[in-house]
Design a protein that fits this description.
The chain has 100 residues and is mostly helical. The chain is built from five helices and no strands. The C terminus is likely disordered.
């Protein structure tokens, strides 16, 4: 979840910096605040993160790293009900054997 939030945050920050001063840039700043403080996503946050990852894979990131970041964004946007069963990295099934 942290990687997904960080990936979206970085993408929003990059988009904000590319905008001229004005209401659109301020709106992205509010979207960043909502994401970081309340875990609220703007309507286009996932799209912006995907576009950022598309640009990065072409220039600096390996396909495996980009795939990992995409999965983290997807899990952040729509968390699995059972992350262990869904194979989300960082979760593993708990041992079901009873200790003797």
């Amino acid at each position: 979840m942290d990687v997904g939030q960080a990936t979206i945050s970085r993408a929003l920050h990059t988009a904000r910096r590319a905008l001229p001063e004005g209401p659109e840039r301020t709106a992205v700043r509010h979207a960043l605040d909502d994401l970081m403080n309340r875990h609220l996503l703007s309507a286009d946050a996932e799209r912006i993160a995907g576009e950022q990852l598309d640009r990065e894979i072409e220039s600096t990131r390996s396909p495996a790293t980009t795939a990992w970041c995409r999965r983290a964004v997807s899990e952040y946007v729509s968390p699995a009900a059972d992350p262990a069963a869904a194979g989300v990295e960082g979760f593993r099934p708990q041992d079901t054997a009873v200790a003797s």
